UniProtKB/TrEMBL annotation:
Protein name: Periplasmic aromatic aldehyde oxidoreductase, FAD binding protein subunit YagS
UniProt key word Disulfide bond: no
Spans annotated as Disordered: 1-24
Superkingdom, taxonomy of origin: Bacteria
GO molecular function: flavin adenine dinucleotide binding
Species for this entry: Rubellimicrobium mesophilum DSM 19309
Keyword vocabulary terms for this entry: Flavoprotein
Gene3D superfamilies, sorted: Uridine Diphospho-n-acetylenolpyruvylglucosamine Reductase, domain 2 (3.30.43.10)
Annotated transmembrane regions: none
Length: 73
């Protein structure tokens, strides 16, 4: 697996701030920054060298704020 940096966002604003300034990537595989939270397979893809982000932003703490599923209507 290639080297990468890991940041942990404490809230939504911090998650956006950590990712700001990154140029949009043409393809997800080349994105220099990726968000990661529980249940993702991103690390497996990184081990297989399918995904190659230089930086990961852990947003698992945002589950409390954004992880609810509510009935519609």
């Amino acid at each position: 697996m290639r080297a990468f940096s890991l940041d942990r966002a404490g809230d939504t604003d911090e998650a956006l701030r950590l990712a700001s300034g990154q140029p949009p990537a043409d393809a997800q595989i080349r994105a220099s920054t990726q968000y990661i939270a529980g249940g993702t397979t991103l690390l497996d893809f990184m081990k297989l060298d399918v995904m190659r982000p230089e930086r990961l932003i852990d947003i698992s703490v945002l589950r409390q704020e954004h992880g609810r599923i509510e009935p519609y209507g």
